[in-house]
Design a protein that fits this description.
Number of helices: 10
Oligomer: single chain
Distance between the termini: 32 Å
Amino acid sequence: MPEILRAEGVESGMSREDPLFINSLAKGLGVLKAFDGGWDALGLREIAGRSGISMGAAQRITHTLVRLGYLHKDERTRRYRLAVRMLDFAYHYFHASPLYEVAIPFVASARDDCRETINVAELDGPEVVAVIRMPSRRLMNPTSTIGRRLPAFCTAGGRAQLAWLPAEEAKVILDKTNFQPRTQHTLIDRAEVEQRLTAARRDGFALVEEEVNHGEIALAAPILDGSGRPLAAVGVSTSTADWTAAAAREKLAPIVMQTARLISRSLQGWKPF
């Protein structure tokens, strides 16, 4: 399970540094994050432990979230699950940004061209978050869904965006990166990762082979705004059983780069801020 923001640590640290920081809101979000990692319903003690708050705080927050419709409580077992209303946040996010609507037809076309899974991911600090995923008929990784977070340093989408960031911004992100391997093939030496970023900038795309998942090759190219800054990355994921890295470079990289160019051109003039 990904690291959860522990509200008590927040209360003793961030609140002293930032008088505008709302501890109760942080605790409420910590409770929602406690449900990441499975479909198992959670009891109050588990929620309190995972979110780092007291039982009393967990009881008040879960009661409030149930009343608001974001948690469902089983009155028989007295355990909690996330409710479908949580998807409201994803809906509002997608419809607040033109990226989703603009990218979908190009992503669908790329999927049809290469018959492989196409993803769009956005950079969020040292991680990338999947915002669009259009699977091929041969589903590579059923656990990879919209909203999934992965380390940017070892993913094609992450490297494609880091490579096009200003050098100082990329350095700040790499300084915050925990270079932990996901497979035995993951590059964890920062100097080697930086060399791959240089190569990605030169080639126009990033390629990773079995650095995130065994048996997977992934390529990605950046979606750029009018100033050349990365907004996201479009990528393709496929299997080492069907493709070699050399074949992917030759046949899949042009599709990925062309798709990224078309999306970039359609978003010309739009910036998130």
